């Protein structure tokens, strides 16, 4: 069966909520049913076929073509299957996603993979602020799964993150790993100011020396046997993280944030 | 414009009408006598089979002000869970918006709601929020008793007349209807690290006891003739065994009128294996011995809510019970403090079940709807939107017993609720939520259907299921205009704010000016409420009511 493909006809001026177009909600629907679904856009409701040309049948494999930065909530609470997006996506990509795979061949907006529980998200471009974070007011961000960003990430990566892995090949903005409860964030590029701000537990693995708050303690240099094992777990990804040349085990360790519980660690490659 | 409501069953305790079938006439915004034969009736509503009451009055519901906004900020998920996209209302997609507050109250037949905790420095904010609430009339109670200025006056042995001037000036400058005292002195003692504060505890640095502050303010309220008795949130809220505090506070009232708020939270004994038991019977015994005391219940109902209070000691002490797990406690330097703790009341919980039972025991034991009022202390015990369900609990014994089965049985075994047979009548409900409530607040123009009253009239379709009946009014007239029809709002009109303006000696303004200049980082003029840009002129927005002796139930009946 061919992938169910939505090709955007024209770009609406208002943002569009694409949360109905996820594999588990479309399973069993006929193409006419899918065409008749309504999407919220500003204060209007738009039929799916008004916005997209629809082709293919396989609801376990969704492709969105010609996507642009105002298509929000793609893959919200996805529980199965695969979504591939050609172009940019708006905010809340994979919000609360429970399983499955999302691939974006473009940039993502704010709150990508926010409160994600399981599954795999790959963003081949850049991503906005609050990657893998908690929604405003909530206290638990990403709880599991893996996010791979090939470009740069915005501020507050992994804010309130609780479990799971975020891999960033480019740079991360300010407050990377802020208020983390647990989990792992690896950044190959640079990080901004206030890295690990109010971190409770969790690990930041950095390739470059960060600008840390004064409430982090230098714990000296270490050779950590677990790092090669961690890298081994990235081996299957299409990423620089899978490259055997990227593997290292020698780091400088910083513990913090002592203004919080202080059991987080920032590991910087030596 | 003359309107007739024809053939409804009228419940109006002010005229001792208990379900009599009678026509109600009102011209423009005022209820009038039956006009002479041949008078032209502009609109006629046939409401046979319906119950007619005055618009309901909520005497204690936190609908505006600093703490309410803080709770909104703390719980954005409440907004997200509520994106119903009812287009055309301002901010209607968010929970707890002013619009939603007004609409939901109106749909239940409410026309006047009192915000019972306005910190004087937050008065302007509270009034702007209240002005944003459509349809219903509002009023505020100004909080005193933890403020540095009053405690300084008392420490320096100021005369009662000076304190009276300060109280009267506060009501003027905050445009409030009455005086609220929250755990007198407690919020101030909290700043000196006190984590519990009893009636006879002394505020550090000031040397005045909670009892002394309370009695001083009560006397002031009587002497400047605020019709609503001083509205008291006692010490030790929610602490097992605090029934003694409530009884001691009744005693401390020395026979003068006093209103004790959300008394369910004070009906707690410390007996039993868990050190927590119902003391409703003991509380009501004391209540019956003190005819000068009025109370409202503050019933707990199950579900998610958020507790907001100026009693920072109580809020701080339950921060670890926050659900979801986040809370805010704040401090307004010279004025007081407060806290916001989200909470979910659960039927499986022993404590929550017992709280639910104690509230209903108080309702059913008190036997006096002229002195005991209907509240959930919104949102502390439950959101006001659950009122219809509470009315059903009061009016329907079988339903009550049914609900008991869902509760924590250990708590049920300790309660006498299953043996209480009383069922409230529609007349009792009309007393409690209309006539007595209006008199308690000193609002003679409402709460009844006598000629001359404001035409705030609620019409309900009579149904066996009282929850359904009171959830959606068939018709609601606000100021004589049809605001709700068949449970849906048909006109968004503006309400007014009710105030009293007791007299005071203007010399106190100079002292206050100096005090604010010295201790506040903004001038006095920034805090007082005047020329509020609320979309209505001040003269239209604020409705002044006469001063007079505080409410005593024995004179009201």
From TrEMBL, chain A:
Pfam families found in the cross-reference section: GXGXG
Recorded GO MF terms: formylmethanofuran dehydrogenase activity; transition metal ion binding
Source taxon at top rank: Bacteria
Coiled-coil regions listed: none
InterPro entries from the UniProt entry: Formylmethanofuran_DH_suC, Glu_synth_asu_C, Glu_synth_asu_C_sf
Glutamate synthase alpha subunit C-terminal domain ranges (all copies): 73-209
Record-level GO BP terms: methanogenesis
PANTHER family named in the record: TUNGSTEN FORMYLMETHANOFURAN DEHYDROGENASE, SUBUNIT C (FWDC), TUNGSTEN-CONTAINING FORMYLMETHANOFURAN DEHYDROGENASE 2 SUBUNIT C
Protein name: Formylmethanofuran dehydrogenase subunit C
Organism of this sequence: Methylotuvimicrobium buryatense
UniProtKB/TrEMBL annotation, chain B:
InterPro entries: Amidohydro_3, Formylmethanofuran_DH_asu, Metal-dep_hydrolase_composite, Metal_Hydrolase, Metallo-dep_Hydrolases_sf
Span of domain Amidohydrolase: 46-472
Coiled-coil ranges from the UniProt annotation: none
Any one GO molecular function term: hydrolase activity, acting on carbon-nitrogen (but not peptide) bonds
PANTHER family: COLLAPSIN RESPONSE MEDIATOR PROTEIN (PTHR11647:SF1), HYDRANTOINASE/DIHYDROPYRIMIDINASE FAMILY MEMBER (PTHR11647)
Record protein name field: Formylmethanofuran dehydrogenase subunit A
Source species: Methylotuvimicrobium buryatense
Lineage, highest ranks first: Bacteria, Pseudomonadati, Pseudomonadota, Gammaproteobacteria, Methylococcales
């Amino acid at each position: 069966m061919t992938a169910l493909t939505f090709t955007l006809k024209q770009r609406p001026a208002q943002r569009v909520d694409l949360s109905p177009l996820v594999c588990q909600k479309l399973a069993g629907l006929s193409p006419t049913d899918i065409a008749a679904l309504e999407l919220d856009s500003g204060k209007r409701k738009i039929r799916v076929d008004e916005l997209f040309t629809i082709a293919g049948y396989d609801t376990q494999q969704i492709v969105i073509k010609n996507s642009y930065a105002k298509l929000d909530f793609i893959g919200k609470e996805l529980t199965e299957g695969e979504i591939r997006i050609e172009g940019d996506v708006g905010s809340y990509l994979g919000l609360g996603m429970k399983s499955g795979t999302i691939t974006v061949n473009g940039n993502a907006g704010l709150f990508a993979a926010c409160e994600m529980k399981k599954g795999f998200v790959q963003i081949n471009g850049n991503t906005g602020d609050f990657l893998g974070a908690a929604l405003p007011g909530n206290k638990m961000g990403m709880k599991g799964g893996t996010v791979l960003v090939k470009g740069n990430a915005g501020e507050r990566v992994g804010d309130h993150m609780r479990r799971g892995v975020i891999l960033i090949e480019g740079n991360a903005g300010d407050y990377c790993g802020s208020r983390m409860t647990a989990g792992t964030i690896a950044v190959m590029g640079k990080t901004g100011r206030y890295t690990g701000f109010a971190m409770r537990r969790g690990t930041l693995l950095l390739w470059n020396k960060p600008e840390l708050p004064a409430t982090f303690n230098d714990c000296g240099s270490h050779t950590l046997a677990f790092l090669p094992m961690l890298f081994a777990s990235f081996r299957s990804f299409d990423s620089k993280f899978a490259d055997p040349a990227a593997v290292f085990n020698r780091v400088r360790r910083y513990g913090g944030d002592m203004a919080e519980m202080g059991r987080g660690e920032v590991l910087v490659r030596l | 414009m003359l309107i007739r409501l024809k053939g409804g069953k009228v419940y109006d305790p002010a005229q001792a009408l208990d379900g009599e079938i009678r026509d109600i006439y009102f011209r423009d915004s005022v209820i009038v006598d039956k006009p002479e034969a041949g008078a032209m009736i502009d609109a006629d509503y046939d409401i046979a089979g319906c119950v007619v009451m005055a618009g309901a009055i909520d005497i204690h519901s936190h609908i505006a002000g600093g703490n309410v906004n803080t709770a909104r900020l703390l719980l954005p998920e409440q907004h997200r869970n509520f994106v119903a996209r009812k287009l055309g209302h301002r901010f209607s997609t968010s929970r707890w918006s002013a619009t939603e507050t007004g609409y939901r109250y109106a749909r239940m037949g409410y026309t006047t709601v009192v915000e019972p905790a306005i910190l004087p420095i937050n008065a302007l904010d509270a009034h702007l929020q209240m002005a944003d609430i459509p349809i219903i009339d509002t009023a505020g109670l100004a909080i005193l008793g933890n403020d540095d200025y009053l405690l300084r006056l008392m420490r320096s042995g100021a005369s009662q007349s000076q304190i009276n001037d300060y109280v009267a000036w506060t009501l003027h400058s905050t445009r409030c209807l009455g005086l609220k005292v929250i755990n007198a002195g407690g919020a101030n003692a909290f700043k000196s690290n006190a984590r519990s504060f009893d009636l006879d505890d002394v505020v550090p640095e000031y040397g005045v006891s909670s009892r002394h502050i309370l009695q001083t303010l009560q006397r002031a309220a009587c002497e400047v003739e605020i019709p609503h008795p001083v509205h008291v949130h006692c010490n030790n809220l929610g602490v097992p065994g605090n029934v003694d505090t409530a009884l001691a506070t009744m005693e401390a009232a020395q026979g003068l009128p006093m209103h004790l708020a959300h008394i369910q939270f004070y009906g707690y004994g410390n007996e039993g294996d868990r050190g927590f038991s119902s003391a409703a019977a003991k509380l009501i015994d004391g209540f019956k011995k003190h005819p000068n005391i009025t109370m409202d219940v503050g019933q707990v109902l199950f579900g998610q809510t958020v507790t907001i209070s100026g009693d920072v000691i109580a809020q701080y002490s339950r921060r670890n019970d926050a659900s979801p797990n986040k809370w805010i406690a704040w401090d307004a330097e010279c004025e007081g403090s407060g806290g916001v703790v989200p909470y979910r009341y659960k039927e499986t919980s022993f404590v929550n079940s017992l709280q639910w039972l104690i509230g209903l025991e108080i309702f059913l034991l008190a036997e006096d709807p002229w002195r005991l009022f209907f509240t959930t202390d919104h949102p502390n015990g439950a959101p006001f939107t659950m009122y219809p369900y509470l009315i059903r609990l009061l009016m329907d014994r079988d339903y009550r017993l049914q609900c008991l089965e869902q509760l924590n049985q250990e708590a049920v075994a300790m309660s006498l609720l299953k043996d209480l047979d009383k069922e409230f009548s529609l007349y009792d409900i009309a007393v409690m939520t209309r006539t007595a409530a209006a008199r308690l607040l000193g609002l003679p123009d409402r709460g009844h259907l006598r000629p001359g009253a404001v035409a705030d009239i609620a019409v309900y379709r009579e149904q066996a299921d009282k929850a359904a009946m009171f959830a959606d009014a068939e018709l609601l007239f606000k100021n004589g205009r049809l605001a709700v029809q068949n449970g849906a709002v048909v006109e968004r009109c503006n309400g007014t704010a009710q105030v009293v303006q007791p007299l005071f000696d203007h010399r106190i303004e100079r002292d206050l000016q100096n005090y604010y200049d010295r201790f506040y980082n903004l001038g006095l003029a920034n805090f007082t409420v005047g020329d509020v840009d609320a979309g209505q002129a001040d003269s239209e927005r604020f409705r002044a009511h006469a001063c007079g002796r505080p409410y005593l139930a024995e004179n009201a009946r």
